[in-house]
């Protein structure tokens, strides 16, 4: 008996494959509406949106955008430019190497979402729509018009899968919902970007410098947002705006340029990061900067274990703790039972060596396990370290770590006569305590990046990738799996210990409760693993960006209170659903998750 299948009867929708928009507006009118609406949105940002200064950002001024108006202005400019590029305006075609329509839709969504978030926030916080000035009404209408116009742009509708008549009504509903979602994704899709033409080397380097400067400006603006509404608006604008640039093909072309000059890009990125403290008027945000670097450095070390070797380590934060405790014990703290004060270079070597030894001791008997069993053992090690550090208080065990009180009063570093706890004037800029440690941590991060690059491109790095892809096949090809995995575990542990030596001096105190498996405040093992997966396993920039986001966003979302972790979890679920390969994916993993993606012409040794 054969089961007859039929195509769904949807006479109200356009024929499959026929170019049409999501909104029933003629495409030429929709394009004009999107472009004109974005231009009027730009004008509206120069009007007052509310009559009172009770809403943060002072949106009462005519002729001078402030606060969230600036973000809407950026979205409006982006939408207008993509709208003009979609008309083929001379001089703007370079803005959309993959086509302007998909980018225009995301840019219009950026403007609409930020504008309506602002209007709704004003109405809710101030008690109704009556608190809006004409500018607020105008921006709501113009941004909505631009978004509806963008949705009217034509696209190739996907063919629906056939429906089995014997299916239940629930299965029919799921099929229709799946097809609608596929249609929406197709509406926001874009083509493959054209390759970047070969330019003079100095021109390509100048473009890379401009990209890094833009990245520094975006990061500085985000970390310096002064109130909650502005940070949420920044997340909306940055997220959808990045998607618009990606759909336009600009992100792909930027990646192509940076891949041609990898060494220059990496050096330039560190120079841009070193300029960050000079963009601040106080040491407040340098505090966040140094903690982000500590978190990012440890995440990059974990990336060797998880991203390159494919070993799931759920207790990695313990190696950070081992390095911090080892450095604290020999750095002159009055709570240390040894009573010694070694110079920083010696404390760094001791911290890294102690973590390496623990990595070997834990890895040697456990790395013959695979998958979930290895993860459970590493999780146990992380908890054993914390409990042991809690009990070494002179009562439950030897007096080594001062128990739950930890090792306190760790003195500031003094390297080559430079007191890291004092302010210093550099070129007319005042560099505070946390900025001093920021520069030191930047050097250590550079060392970790160098180790990651050299090891990843080496013979042992290729062996790690082989183990990650198929351990059985790697063993059959003669790779000593146990030895290779033990080296990965030891290298990753020593890099975490290296960051721990600086963390001990930055925080003044090292306690067992700083090294949990999971908690609301990073670094902990769960957040470290999330940073690697979120950013992109097997890459250098992925864990660095993932760690920066995972540290900065919870710090800025404290106004959510008890719902902070809930919102954070929802965001992670959505990201894993729609971009499972991470923000900065390894190209091999990107092909695994998206088979329709175009394969790169050159694939690195580690698949990057």
UniProtKB/TrEMBL annotation:
The chain crosses the membrane at residues 32-52, 64-85, 106-124, 136-155, 201-224, 230-250, 262-279, 285-307, 314-332, 344-364, 371-389, 434-452, 486-506, 526-553, 560-578. It is a multi-pass membrane protein. Its main location: membrane. CDD domains: TM_PBP1_LivM_like. It comes from the Bacteria. It is found in: Cell membrane. InterPro entries: ABC_transp_permease, LivM-like. Keywords: Cell membrane, Membrane, Transmembrane, Transmembrane helix. This is Branched-chain amino acid ABC transporter permease. It comes from Streptomyces lannensis. The lineage of its organism: Bacteria, Bacillati, Actinomycetota, Actinomycetes, Kitasatosporales.
């Amino acid at each position: 008996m054969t089961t007859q299948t039929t195509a769904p009867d949807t006479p109200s929708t356009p024929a499959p494959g026929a170019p049409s928009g999501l909104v029933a507006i003629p495409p030429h009118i929709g394009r004009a509406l999107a472009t004109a609406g974005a231009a009027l949105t730009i004008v509206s940002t120069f009007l007052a949106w509310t009559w009172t200064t009770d809403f943060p950002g002072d949106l009462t001024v005519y002729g001078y955008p402030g606060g969230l108006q600036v973000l809407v202005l950026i979205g409006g400019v982006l939408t207008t430019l993509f709208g003009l590029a979609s008309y083929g305006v001379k001089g703007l075609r370079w803005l959309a190497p993959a086509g302007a329509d998909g980018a225009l839709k995301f840019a219009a969504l950026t403007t609409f979402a930020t504008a309506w978030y602002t209007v709704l926030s004003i109405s809710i916080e101030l008690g109704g729509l009556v608190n809006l000035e004409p500018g607020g009404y105008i921006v709501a209408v113009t941004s909505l018009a631009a978004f509806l116009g963008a949705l009217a742009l034509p696209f190739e509708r996907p063919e629906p899968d056939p429906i089995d008549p014997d299916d239940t009504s629930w299965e029919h509903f799921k099929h229709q919902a799946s097809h609608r979602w596929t249609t929406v994704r197709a509406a926001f899709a874009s083509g493959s970007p054209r390759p970047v033409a070969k330019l003079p080397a100095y021109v390509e380097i100048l473009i890379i410098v401009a990209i890094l400067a833009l990245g520094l400006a975006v990061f500085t603006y985000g970390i310096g947002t002064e109130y909650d509404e502005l940070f949420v608006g920044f997340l909306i604008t940055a997220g959808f705006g990045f998607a618009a640039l990606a759909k336009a093909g600009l992100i792909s072309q930027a990646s192509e340029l940076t891949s041609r000059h990898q060494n220059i890009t990496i050096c330039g990125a560190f120079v841009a990061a070193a300029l960050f403290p000079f963009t601040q008027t106080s040491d407040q945000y340098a505090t966040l900067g140094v903690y982000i670097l500590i978190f990012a450095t440890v995440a990059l070390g974990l990336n060797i274990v998880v991203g390159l070797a494919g070993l799931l380590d759920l207790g990695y934060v313990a190696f950070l703790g081992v390095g911090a405790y080892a450095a604290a014990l020999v750095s002159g703290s009055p709570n240390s039972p040894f009573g010694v004060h070694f110079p920083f270079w010696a404390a760094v070597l001791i911290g890294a060596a102690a973590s390496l030894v623990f990595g070997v001791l834990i890895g040697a008997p456990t790395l013959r396990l695979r998958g979930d069993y290895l993860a459970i053992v590493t999780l146990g090690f992380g908890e054993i370290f914390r409990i042991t550090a809690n009990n070494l208080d002179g009562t439950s065990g030897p007096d080594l770590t001062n128990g739950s009180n930890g090792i306190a009063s760790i003195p500031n570093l003094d390297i080559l006569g430079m007191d890291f706890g004092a302010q210093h004037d550099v070129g007319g800029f005042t560099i505070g305590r946390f900025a001093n440690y920021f520069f030191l941590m930047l050097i250590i991060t550079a060392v970790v990046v160098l180790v990651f690059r050299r090891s990843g491109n080496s013979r042992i790095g290729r062996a790690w990738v082989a183990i990650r892809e198929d351990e059985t096949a790697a063993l059959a090809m003669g790779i000593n799996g146990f030895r290779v995995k033990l080296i990965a575990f030891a290298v990753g542990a020593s890099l975490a210990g290296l960051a721990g030596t600086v963390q001990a001096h930055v925080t003044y105190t090292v306690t067992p409760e700083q090294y949990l498996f999971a908690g609301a405040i990073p670094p902990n093992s769960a957040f470290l693993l999330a940073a690697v997966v979120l950013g992109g396993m097997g890459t250098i920039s992925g864990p660095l960006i993932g760690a920066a986001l995972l540290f900065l966003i919870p710090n800025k979302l404290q106004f959510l209170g008890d719902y902070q972790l809930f919102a954070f979890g929802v965001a992670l679920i959505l990201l894993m659903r729609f971009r499972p390969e991470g923000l900065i994916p390894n190209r091999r993993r990107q092909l695994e998750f998206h088979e329709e993606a175009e394969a790169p012409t050159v694939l690195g040794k580690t698949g990057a």
